[in-house]
Amino acid sequence: MSTSTTARFALGIDLGTTNTALGFVALDDEAASPAALPLPQVVAAHEHAPRALLPSFLYLPSSSELPEGALALPWDDRRGFCVGGFARDRATSVPGRVIASAKSWLCHPGVDRRAAMLPFGAAADSDVPKLSPVEVQTRLLTHLREAWDAAHADAPLSAQRVVLTVPASFDAVARQLTEEAARQAGLSDVVLLEEPQAALYAWIATHGEEWRKQVRPGDLILVVDIGGGTTDFSLIEVKDDGQGNLSLERKAVGDHILLGGDNMDLALAYRVRARLEADGRAIDDWQLRALTHSCRAAKEAMLEDDRLPEQTVVIPGRGSKLIGGSIAASLSRAELDETVLQGFFPVVDAAARPAAARRAGLQTLGLPYAHDAAITRHLAAFLGGQRPAALLFNGGVTRSPTLQQRIVDVVNGWLDDQQVRVLPGADLDLAVARGAAAYARVRASNKGLRIKGGTARAYYVGIERSELAVPGVPPRVDAVCIAPRGMEEGSEAAIDSELGLVVGEPAHFRFFASSKRERDAVGAVVDVARAGDDLVEVDPIEATLPGQPGALVPATLRSRVTEVGTLELFVVETATANRHKLEFQVRGDARH
Amino acid sequence: MTDPTVVDPAAPGFFARLALALRVLFDAVLARKLLLPEPRALPPVERIVEKPVEVEKIVERVVEKVVEKPVEVEKIVERVVEKTVEKVVEKVVEKTRPPEEGALHLLSILQRDGRLLDFLGEELTGLKDAEIGAAVRLVHQGCKKALATYVVLKPVHTEPEGTVIVVDKGFDAHALRLAGNVKGEPPYKGTLAHAGWRAVEVKLPERPAFVDARVIAPAEVEVR
User: Fold this and answer.
1) Do A134 and A113 form a contact (C-beta atoms < 8 A)?
2) Residue partners of A361: CB distance under 8 A and separation at least 6
3) d(CA A592, CA B141)
4) Class of A458-584 per CATH?
5) Inter-chain CB proximity B135 and A93 less than 8 Å
6) How does the average pLDDT of chain B come out, rounded?
7) Does domain A216-258+348-355+367-445 have CATH number 3.90.850.10?
């Protein structure tokens, strides 16, 4: 067979916080529905098997921990680390050697995401070789490339059309880091797509042309995506292009919320542990992890079938005496309701807002988990009074009919008399990967519907105003809009007013994003001190322009949204028209 | 089992094999079938004939393969021609596994995912039903998932249990067991009491042959 360099397949990669999947469809088959590629992975020492999902975990065993070749894959019999099922299972036994949730670290501006820092919190004397969040993502993506290439020797992944999904809430920096990981994994030409949009493409692919009958012009479709570790909202409007054709436009995306099914399992486990400890039983870390596992199963069973009054949760004996060494407790329906339904999905009114994070003077650098666990309050804040007509669920948590109904009830409570319609979703675990593959095909063939929307946020550069210095009063910082919300791929924007730029040494700018300010045009000026929650500070940007250190040259700022879907910023010297790219600084410590 | 001199009793005897080898030499049609497409592949076979022991082995494999998968014949003959005879034998050995290996592997999976051996090995006398029940859920949940992952099962009979069915003449007595008032010749009329189970597919994880399948679950040491 000859190796073809022309693309034959459209691929969609869902690089999730807890699970990763690869969807694909032949480019020459317009009617075919995207399928998921079974991903060979290590499932136990010396054993590999294909699975639809690749758990996004990375296991770094010590040199003596496993027999030689225990992590062999069909395409590599000497691998020294592993990603996938066995890595996830080992997290219970050797948590210090397993990296989880690397994706959540990618969008954490408090840390250097190119620095070897994971597993986070590994003991100081640990000999585990640390990896950067970008490197972990690279290894997950490399595994996908290898799995694909092993199954398609004549159509290597590097030659196919690949779409990689990111949370809608990923800012410009997290997107760039994701693209960087893809490049390092040998995926040269990926295009980024927001996960909720991918879920909607999957819904369209499932329904064919029928989807047009399920929505009407003017409808707002709310996508609620609740995964293991993150929650993501998007609002997509159905429009009429004037000739009777429906089109879709993404109107808004939510902020990044580190809140998901794992939090619910842990909340239940803590509750049961407290009860057991009150009875005088000590629960160690291994037992807590086993208890969390058991609570997840109990939660899923009771949320699946609301007639179950209670479930028994069991911490099995660690030794070969399974029953004799076990601790059993029951989890009642009332406890589940209180912890999961009241705790994570309370009935709130449309004006409810999540409790604001109180920042302590000293904080650990752990992941910035959501302070308010109430997903419905985050949803109310996201909608801000807008009224969705339809609801599309995505993510493993929303598999539960009870939770779906709860969210529908809460949203209906915010609507006057109409009821929100639930769009029947596809396979919740694989919808994003499949939808991304469907989108990759649309892009390649230039046929089919594309969701419009452009960038989800507006971006601003912080510029200090030259004012008379007043002791005790920090100089006023203006945020000048450099990329308005909704910039389409391939478009550019420029701030016309000239700035004096320091040359010969790195010039730093503060950098802000806003998912709320939709009307700011390029050059719009916002007073940072008064903007409040509207502006979120992102990693600073910097550029070093050649020249005599300390000198100032007149320059203008430009922005460009690449075809990939990343944002690039430039400084253009007025005199020479030379362009210099501004780089995001992801060192974490450089933050103001 | 790696001993190449051990002869499968079902295989053709020495003279039969010699006759086959000679047939390869003199029957042009068969030779072409075995050695296509290049006629230059013939000389090595002649050379092999000079070493009678090896001829036995090769012809035996070739004949087996011709019956089952003619496409692969090319490959094997090519291998024999270009490489050593030992290489072929090695390849055969690698695929041979002790017959109990699959059973041990499945046990290992059921223990790993559902603690089945711990459960079956435990003395239940003196334990309360509630305690056992709680543990059974764990075993059930884990084993059920493992089974669903690695074995595709379906009922032997697709009609719902309780349906009255007719068992025709020539039925497969291995897949259908009669009970009750059995007499005379089929057809029989009866109620489907149990739909049976059939493994449609068994897809255990890949595992290299050198792994000691007798270690069903490793001992665990929590390092301090």
Assistant:
1) yes
2) none
3) 51
4) mainly beta
5) no
6) 71
7) no
The answer to whether A199 and A225 have CB atoms below 8 angstroms apart is yes
A128 touches chain B (CB under 8 A): no
Domain boundaries A9-192, CATH class: alpha beta
The residues with which A392 forms a beta bridge, in sequence order, are A223, A423
Q: What is the pLDDT of residues A24-54, one digit of tens each?
A: 999 988 888 999 999 999 999 999 999 999 9
Please indicate whether, in this complex, the C-beta atoms of A326 and B131 are within 8 angstroms of each other. Answer: yes
Q: Name the DSSP letter for residue A88.
A: H
Q: Residue A36 and residue A51: Cα distance in Å, rounded?
A: 10
- The pLDDT value recorded for residue A391 is 96
CATH 3.40.50.300 fits A261-344, yes or no: no
Q: Is B79 at the interface with chain A, CB within 8 A?
A: no
Neighbours of A37 (CB within 10 A): 23
- Helix H or strand E segment including A287: helix A285-304
Q: How close, in Å, is residue B81 to chain A by CA atoms?
A: 24
- Give the H/E segment covering residue A401: helix A401-414
The answer to whether A297 faces chain B, any CB pair under 8 Å, is yes
What does the domain layout of chain A look like in residue ranges? Answer: 9-192, 216-258+348-355+367-445, 261-344, 458-584
Between A and B, how many CB-CB pairs are < 8 A?
A: 68
Contacts 24+ apart (CB under 8 A), B66-74: B66/B33, B66/B34, B70/B33, B73/B33, B73/B34, B74/B36
Q: How far apart are CA A408 and CA A415, in angstroms?
A: 11
* Measured distance CA(A56)–CA(A30) in Å, rounded: 31
Query: Given this chain, do its domains A9-192 and A216-258+348-355+367-445 carry the same CATH topology?
Result: yes
Q: Which residues on B lie below 8 Å from A93 (Cβ)?
A: 220
Task: Give me the count of residues in chain B.
Answer: 224
Bridge-based pairing state of the strands A477-483 and A525-527: antiparallel
CB A83 within 8 A of CB A54: yes
Residue with tokens 């920090």: A474
- pLDDT for B79: 42
User: pTM for the full model?
Assistant: 0.82
Residue with tokens 């005599």: A548
Flag whether residue B94 sits within 8 Å of chain A, measured between CB atoms: no
Name A380's Cβ contacts closer than 8 Å, sequence gap at least 6: A348, A349, A350, A351, A352, A353, A414
Kindly state the tokens that stand for B136.
């059974």
